[in-house]
Specification:
This protein has 350 residues and is mainly α. Helix content is 69%, strand content 0%. Helix 14 crosses helix 17 (316-328). The longest helix is centred in the N-terminal third of the chain and has 27 residues, at 75-101. The radius of gyration is 20 Å and the shape is globular.
Length: 350
């Protein structure tokens, strides 16, 4: 199921994307911000390329090293890299929205994500999150396109496999993507609701895991330090009502703020409306819900027991933005949300 393209809305998006990229690169050139602590940490990794590092997979270290080599460690090049990744992620979000609900929906999806303070911040800080957002968004688009061909397209399968592999080399959370895709296929079935070629799907998932063999070898030689660090990130605390309410409040308030207030409400509201209409929801809506809601609820539950970093659930908002964009365009959720477009315009302006 693929929606048609609208040249007028395609042009609007390309103009917006080009303007955003120029603005972000100009900002990096005119305001060469010093490296933040995390950026300095990863920049030091880039001076010593390796198959693994203490706290994260190696992708950000490799990118830092490449950017440093290309630009001779200039601040402009180091700050241009996250601008390119976050703007590229917007392109993938638009393409997914267009494939699902049409070009107008793709435009609104990208605009909602662009309007969040989180997306603006990621465009100037060279951390693991800009490439993660790009590879996750690309994986979403490639997986849908592959399923839409009835899993017959080798090109989309290879593209999905590469995006999965590179995403897994960027941050551990990307390993959840194939899990969620398998859940979606188990719920919805293959293209047009037909049978799922599980052997083919699992072979491509297995091929994507081959990307992790060098980092696994590195961890084996270094006492599995990345795994131990990841486990240490999950604090072990007994339940305390007052502390839990504080942590949950911090998490929800932070998500609303970084999500742009009104834009965040629209994304979360679209998820709630989709769940309420689950029985009537088509394959497109279920795809977006499964790649958003379980992850967001998992981090909400985690916030009951510990402080959750605000960037941890970042990737799960990409599909929520497409769901809201489809609803605002009148093509998704039964078209009932088209009347909320003025509120969305206010959210973008805010």
């Amino acid at each position: 199921m693929t929606a048609g393209a609208d040249p007028a809305w395609d042009r609007r998006f390309l103009v917006m994307l080009g303007a955003v990229l120029v603005l972000r690169l100009a900002y990096a050139a005119v305001f060469p911000l010093d490296l933040a602590p995390d950026e300095s940490y990863y920049w030091d990794w880039g001076r010593r390329p390796d198959w693994g590092y203490f706290s994260k997979p190696p992708m950000v270290g490799w990118l830092m090293g490449l950017a440093g080599w290309i630009g001779n460690d200039s601040f402009f090049v180091l700050k241009a890299v996250p601008a390119l990744f976050t703007t590229g992620a917007l392109a993938w979000v638009f393409l997914l929205g267009r494939a699902l609900y049409g070009s107008r929906a793709g435009f609104w999806s990208a605009l909602l994500l662009l309007a969040t303070p989180a997306n603006a911040a990621l465009s100037i800080f060279f951390t693991i999150d800009p490439p993660l957002l790009f590879f996750w968004s690309a994986s979403l688009g490639c997986a849908w396109r592959w399923r839409a061909t009835g899993f017959r397209s080798v090109g989309w399968a290879v593209a999905w496999c590469v995006c999965l592999g590179l995403g897994s080399l960027t941050k551990q959370i990307h390993l959840l993507f194939p899990v969620l895709f398998v859940v979606y296929l188990a719920v919805q079935g293959g293209g047009d609701g037909g049978p799922v070629p599980w052997g083919r799907v699992l072979r491509w998932v297995g091929a994507s895991l081959l990307f992790l063999l060098p980092p696994l070898g590195w961890n084996w030689r270094h006492e599995w330090i990345t795994f131990r660090h990841t486990a240490d990130e999950l604090e072990r605390r007994s339940f305390d009502l007052g502390r839990s309410l504080r942590f949950v409040g911090e998490f929800v308030g932070g998500q609303a703020g970084l999500g742009g207030g009104i834009s965040w409400v629209l994304m979360v509201g679209a998820l709630v409306a989709a769940v309420a209409a689950w029985r009537r929801l088509d394959a497109r809506g279920r795809y977006l819900v499964i790649f958003s809601l379980p992850g967001l609820l998992a981090f909400l539950g985690l916030s009951v027991f510990q402080r959750v970093e605000q960037n941890w659930p970042l990737v799960f908002y990409t599909s929520a933005a497409v769901l809201a964009g489809g609803a605002l365009s009148g093509a998704g959720l039964g078209g009932a949300w088209a009347g909320w477009r003025p509120l969305a315009r206010g959210g973008v302006a805010l």
